Amino acid sequence: MYVGAVFFPLLGACISGFFGRWIGDKAAQWASVICMALAAICGVSAFIQVAYGHAPATLEIATWLDVGGLQLSWALRYDTLAAVMVGMVTVASTMIHLYSVGYMSHDPTQPRFFAYLSLFTFMMLMLVTADNLLQLFFGWEGIGLASYLLIGYWYEKESANRAAMKAFIVNRVGDLFFMLGMGLTFWTFGSIEFNTIFQGVEAARQVTFAGFPVVEVIALLFFLGAMGKSAQIGLHTWLPDAMEGPTPVSALIHAATLVTAGVFLMARMSPVVEYAPNVLGFITFIGATTAFFAASVGMVQNDIKRVIAYSTCSQLGYMFFAIGVGAYQAAVFHLFTHAFFKALLFLSAGSVIHAMSDEQDIRKMGGIWKKIPVTYAMFWIGSLALAGVPYFAGYYSKDFVLEAAYAGHGWTAKYAFLMGIVAAFMTAFYSWRLIILTFHGTPRADHHTMEHVHESPAVMLIPLFGLAVGALFAGAYFSGDFVGHHWAEFWNGSIVNAPHNHIMHEAHEVPSWVPLAPTVVGVAGIVLAYVLYMFLPHLPGRIAAAVPGLYRFLLNKWYFDELYDRAIVQPLRRLAVQLWKVGDVKIIDGMPNGAASLTAQASGRVVRFQTGRVANYAFAMIIGLVLFVSIFLFGVGR
Amino acid sequence: MNWTLVLPELVLALAGLAALVAGVLPKRDTSFAINMGVFGAMLLAAVLVMAQPEGTAFAGQYVSDAFTRFMKLLVLAGAALGLLVAMDWNVKEGLAKFEFPLLLLFSSLGMMVMVSANDLIALYLGLELLSLSLYVIAAFNRDSERSAEAGLKYFILGSLASGLLLYGASLIYGFAGSTNFDRIADAVSATEGVPFGLVVGLVFVLAALAFKVSAVPFHMWTPDVYEGAPTPVTAFFASAPKVAAIALLTRVAAGPFGELVEQWQQVLILASLGSMILGALAAIGQKNIKRLMAYSSIGHIGYALMGLAVGSDLGIRGLLLYMAIYLFTNVGAFAVLVAMRRNGRALEGIDDLAGLGRTDPAMALAMTVFMLSMAGIPPLAGFFGKLYVFLAAVYGGYWTLAVVGVLTSAVSAYYYLRVIKVMYFDAGEALDARPTSLSVVLAGTGLFTVFFFAFPAPFLAAAQAAVAALVG
Amino acid sequence: MIAALAFYVFAAILIASAVMVVTSRNPVHSVLFLILAFFNAAALFLIAGAEFLAMILVIVYVGAVAVLFLFIVMMLDIDFSRMREGLQRYAPIGAVIGGILFLELLFVFGSWQFAPDAATLRLNATPGPEVTNTEALGQLIYTDYIYLFQVAGLILLVAMIGAIVLTLRDKPANSKRQDIGVQVARAEAVKLANPPSRAGLGQLGIIRRPLPEAPKPKAVGHDHHDHHGGGHH
C-alpha cells in the first residue's frame, strides 16, 4: 500500500511513455488514469492508517549512497505530514488525469502528456515521502524537470518555450540555495537523514557559522530554496508565465502540488526552523508581502489563468506567513484545502477556455453563464472557498491562518495579519471580478465563438464534482484534526512546535472580532466587485484612468520582469560575450610564431598560423606558470 | 624483476606490433580487421588488468595496485569506446587507415604506462607516448587544414608543456637524488620544513599535467584543437587521456608529495576555481557544439580537480567517481556528435541538432540524458559525481569551492538546456541514419548514465579500494 | 680547480650562445649558435664524466639535427622582419614575466637544499675506476631500465608511424610511373606474326590507320549536285 501509492504513477508513466506508441492513445490514457486511481486508493488508505491509526512507518527500498561514513537509504517515510500530502497529491492528481482525458482529447501526442503528468506525480510523491534531504532533493529537482517538460509541452509555441526555460532557471536559483542548505546541514549534523538531524538540533543550537547561529543560516537557505519553488516575491516571476502550459498542468503543478513543495519543506524542517526566530520573522514578512503583492496584481490582470495564478501566489503567501508565526499545522491545512479549491478553479477555467474555443482573455468573454451552468456553479464554489466565505473549505483554513498571525509575536506577525486582511479583501474582489467578467454581462466574444459555447463532456465534469466536494467539505471535516483541539495527536510529532511556541493554543483565544474580520472583508470585496463590474461597468475604466501610474504599476506586475532583465539578465549576457571574446576571438593579433612558420611552408597556411594564436597560448601558459610559482613562494611563508 | 606483472602492457604492445605487420604486409585493405583486432586486444588487456596481481616491478618503476586497476579499466574502456565511435566515421570520411586504431592502441599503452608510473622517467615516457599519438591523430585528416592546424597547435604547446615537466622533474631529482616516487616520498618526509626547490619543481610538473587535463590557465589549446580535430578524435581526446592525466596528477600529488598537501593545494584550488568559472561562462556564447563541449570539459575538469584540491580521501574518491561518470557520459554525448551527418556531410553546429526530437527520438532522448547528466540534474549519474566532490569539499570546510561549484553548475545548466531546447523545440531536417556501432555506444553509455543511481555500490567499492591503495 | 674553471668557461659560453640563438637577426647565425651551444653542453658532460652522452650529443644533435635545421632554414623563405615586429611589440610584457620567473628561480637556487640522502642515492656517471661511462650505461639500460628503454623504443615507433601517416601519399595523382610488367602483359598491345617475305601491309591484313585527309577544296557546285532536291534553296 505504502509502496503502491508512490510507484503506481511511475508505472503509469512508463506504460504511456514507453509503450504509448504501440498500445494507442486511448489505452495509454486509461492505463495512466487507472494507475493513478490505484495510487489514490493506496494513498487515501495510507492516510487513514497513518493519520487516524497513529501508525507512522518507514519503509526501506534500497541502500543508496555510502559517502564518507554516511549511509543513505532510499526509504519511504510515512508520518502524518507525509500521509496528508500523499493523500492529497494522489487524489488531486487522479482528478486531473481524468480531466485531461477530456481536455487533451484533440492533442496529437497524448501518451507523452500523460507520461509527463504521471512522472510529475511520482516525483512529487518521492519528495513528500522522503526520508532524507537527498531524496527530497531528488523529488525537488524531479518536479522541476517534469514541470519544465509540461510547461513547454506545446513546444511549437515560442512563448511556451520561453516560459519553460524561465521556470527552470528561476527554479535553479532556488535549488542553489537548497543545495547550499543541504551542504551546511551535512556539515553541521554530519548527516542528512531527518531523524539524525532532528535529534541533533539541540546540540547544533550552540554552533555558529560565519558568526551566525548555524540553525538560522540553514533555515534561511532552505527558505530561499522554497521561495523559488513556491513563487514567493522576488522569485515568483516564473509562475504566471508558466500558464503557457495546458490547463490541467496549471491545475496540478501550479495549484495543488509543485508550488506547495516549499511549504512542505518548511513544515518538514519544522524542528530546525523552530529555533531560527529571525528567519521566521523574515519568512513572515516575505509571505505577507507576497500575499499582498500578488493579490494587488491579480486585481488588474485580464488573462483568466493569470488571475488564478496570482491568486495562487497570494495564497502561498498566506501559507508562508503561517509558517513564519510558527503555525505549521495551519500552513499545511491551508495547503490541503487550497489544493482542492484551486485545482477546482483551474479546471473550471479550463472548462471555460474549452467552451470559448481556447480564448483566455476575460475581456473577450461574458454572458455565457446560462450556456455552461455546471462550470459556472463549480466556479462559484471554488471562488467562495477561495474568498473564505463561511463553511467552505477556505474559510476554516484561512481564518485560522489569520488568527495565528494575530496571535503571533513581533511586528512581522502584526504586519502579516494586516496584509492578510487586505489581501483577503482583494482576493474576494478579483475573484468576483473574474466571475462577472467571464460569465455575466453582454457577450464580448465574436458571434462564431458564442455559437460554439458548450458544456464540457462528462469526463471533464466528474473531476470537477470530486474537487467541488473537497472544496465544500474538506475544511469543515478536517479542521478539528488539523488545527482543532485534536491537533497534537493527529500530527503525532511529525510537525514539531518548540516548547516556547504556544501559537496553536493562542490562536484559539483571539478576540472574537478576529475570526469575523476575513469574512467581513471578503463579503465587502464581493459586494464591491458586484457594484463595480455588474452595476456600474464604466466605473473601473475611469478609476484606472484616474490613477494611471498605479494601474500600470499593477498591470506590469510591479515591474519585476523588467527589473530582472536590466539587473541580471543583460549584464550576465554582456559578461558572457566579453569572456567569449577574450577566450576565443583573441585580442592580441599578429603575434609571430617562429616554430609555426618553420613547419608551415605553404604560403597560404603561414598566414593562417601567423595570426599567432599558438604563441599567444604559449605565453598564457607561461604567465599561468609564473602565477603558480608565485603563489607557492608566497604561500610557503604563511 | 617481475615480468609477469606488466602482462597487460606487454600484450598490448605485442598486439600493436602484430597489427602493424598485419597492416603493412597484405596488399588488401585490412583496416576493418585491424580495428576489430585492436578492440579485442584492448578487451584482453582489460581482462588481464582485472587479474593483475599487486606489487611493483622493474626496480620500483612500475606499480600495480587497486588504484592503477581502477584507472586502467577506465582508460581502456574509454579507448575502446573511442575506437567504436570512430570506425564508421573514418570509413565515411575516407580516413579508414589501419594506422588509426594502431595509434589509439599505442596511446592507450602510453596511458597505462602513465597510470602505473612510479618513477618520474616512467611518467614522462608514458606521457610522451600518449602525446605523440595524440598529436598525430589530431592531424589525422591531413587534407583538412583545420585538422592539420589542430595537430600542429597541440604539438607545439604540448612540447612546451613537456619542457616544463622535464624542468620540474630535474629540480625534483636534484633535491631528492632519485626519480623514484617512493624515494622522493622518503626524502620529503626526512626533510625539515618546505624545500623551495622541490616545491617549485612540483609546480612545474603540476603545470604540465594541468595542461594535459586542460585546466585553467593551461586550457587555451582545448577549444581550438577540439574544434579542428575530426569529431571522433575529439571524443577520444575528451575522455581517456583526461582520465589518465588525472590519474597521474593524483598519483603525483597524493603519493610522493602527500606531505606537502598544503603547498600544492593552493594551486589546485585556483585551477579548479578558474576551470569551473571559465567552463561555465565561456560556453554560453558558442555556436559550434565541439567548442561547447571543449569548454564543458574544462568545466568538468574543474569539478574533478575540486576533489583533489580538497586533499582528503573523500575528495580523491569523489574525483575517481567523477572521472568514471564523466568518461561514460562524455563518450555518449560525443557519439551523438559523431552521428551528426546530413546528406553525407558531417555537421558541427548546435543548430544542426534542431528537430532531432522528432526525426530521431531515441538519439534525442539519449542526448537529453547526457546533457542533463552533465548539468548535474538528479537522478542521473552526473549528479552523483558532483554530489561526491561537493560533499567532500563541504566536509573539508572548503566553502568557496563548494559554493562556486554549485553556482557554476547552475550557470552551465543553461547551455546544456539550450542543446535540449534546440533538439526538441526548433524545427530541422532529419539527419542520416546512424550506424549500428554508434547505437550500441549510445545505448550502453545512456543506460549507465540513467541507472547509475540504482547500482552505485560496485563503483563506490572500487573507488574506495583505489583510494586506500593510493593513500595507504 | 681546472675542472671548475673549465666548467664556468663552458657554461658561460653555453648561456651566451643560447641567448644569441634567440636574439640574432640572421636565422643562419641562430642555427650556428645552436651548434656552438651543443658543443659546450657536450663539454659539460665530459667534465661530469659522461663521455658517452657527450659524444652522442655531438654526433646526433650537431651531426644530424642541427645540420638538418640549417638546411631547412636556408631553404625556407621566412619573413623575419615581420616576426621581429611582434617581438618588439610584446617585448616589455614578455620581459616582465620573464624577469619575475628569473627572480623566482634565483631565489629558489639561493635557498637550495638537498634531501639528506640525495648524495648517496644519486647515480654516478662512472661507478668505479675501472668501469667507463659507456659500460655503466649499458649495464643499466638493459637491466634496471629495460622497461623505460622499451617504452622509449615504442615512442620512436609511434613517431615513425606518425611521420608516415601524415606525409606519405601512396599514389600521387599527378605523376605517372612506368611499370614494365603491366605494359607487357596488356593483351592487344603486342601481336606476334610470321609474315612472308616481300608481302605488303595490305596483304598481311594489317590495317593502317588512314592518314587524316587533306581538306578538300570547297566545291559548291559539286555539293549542290550531290544533294539534289535538297530543298534548302
TrEMBL record, chain A:
InterPro entries: NADHpl_OxRdtase_5_subgr, ND/Mrp_TM, NU5C-like, Proton_antipo_N. Residues 64-114 form the NADH-Ubiquinone oxidoreductase (complex I) chain 5 N-terminal domain. The chain crosses the membrane at residues 6-23, 30-52, 80-101, 113-130, 136-155, 176-198, 210-228, 249-267, 279-300, 307-329, 335-353, 374-395, 415-437, 458-478, 513-536, 614-636. Residues 130-420 form the NADH:quinone oxidoreductase/Mrp antiporter transmembrane domain. Pfam families: Proton_antipo_M, Proton_antipo_N. The keyword Transmembrane helix applies. Keywords: Membrane, Transmembrane, Transmembrane helix. NCBIfam families: NDH_I_L, PRK06590.1. This is NADH-quinone oxidoreductase subunit L. It is a multi-pass membrane protein. The keyword Transmembrane applies. PANTHER family: NADH-UBIQUINONE OXIDOREDUCTASE CHAIN 5. One of its GO terms (molecular function) is NADH dehydrogenase activity. GO terms for cellular component: endomembrane system; membrane. It is found in: Endomembrane system; Membrane. One of its GO terms (biological process) is ATP synthesis coupled electron transport. It comes from the Bacteria.
TrEMBL record, chain B:
It is found in: Cell membrane; Endomembrane system; Membrane. It is a multi-pass membrane protein. Keywords: Cell membrane, Membrane, NAD, Quinone, Translocase, Transmembrane, Transmembrane helix, Transport, Ubiquinone. Pfam families: Proton_antipo_M (PF00361). One of its GO terms (molecular function) is quinone binding. Residues 117-411 form the NADH:quinone oxidoreductase/Mrp antiporter transmembrane domain. It is an enzyme of class 7 (translocase). NDH-1 shuttles electrons from NADH, via FMN and iron-sulfur (Fe-S) centers, to quinones in the respiratory chain. The immediate electron acceptor for the enzyme in this species is believed to be ubiquinone. Couples the redox reaction to proton translocation (for every two electrons transferred, four hydrogen ions are translocated across the cytoplasmic membrane), and thus conserves the redox energy in a proton gradient. Belongs to the complex I subunit 2 family. PANTHER family: NADH DEHYDROGENASE. This is NADH-quinone oxidoreductase subunit N. It comes from Teichococcus aestuarii. The gene is nuoN.
Automatic annotation (TrEMBL), chain C:
Residues 212-233 are annotated as: Disordered. Pfam families: Oxidored_q3. It catalyses: a quinone + NADH + 5 H(+)(in) = a quinol + NAD(+) + 4 H(+)(out). It comes from the Bacteria. Its EC number is 7.1.1.-. It is found in: Cell membrane. Residues 220-233 have a biased composition (Basic and acidic residues). It is an enzyme of class 7 (translocase). Keywords: Cell membrane, Membrane, NAD, Quinone, Transmembrane, Transmembrane helix, Ubiquinone. GO terms for cellular component: plasma membrane. It is a multi-pass membrane protein. The chain crosses the membrane at residues 6-24, 31-50, 56-78, 90-112, 145-168. GO terms for molecular function: NADH dehydrogenase (ubiquinone) activity; quinone binding. NDH-1 shuttles electrons from NADH, via FMN and iron-sulfur (Fe-S) centers, to quinones in the respiratory chain. Couples the redox reaction to proton translocation (for every two electrons transferred, four hydrogen ions are translocated across the cytoplasmic membrane), and thus conserves the redox energy in a proton gradient. NCBIfam families: PRK06638.1-4. Belongs to the complex I subunit 6 family. This is NADH-quinone oxidoreductase subunit J. It comes from Teichococcus aestuarii. The lineage of its organism: Bacteria, Pseudomonadati, Pseudomonadota, Alphaproteobacteria, Acetobacterales.
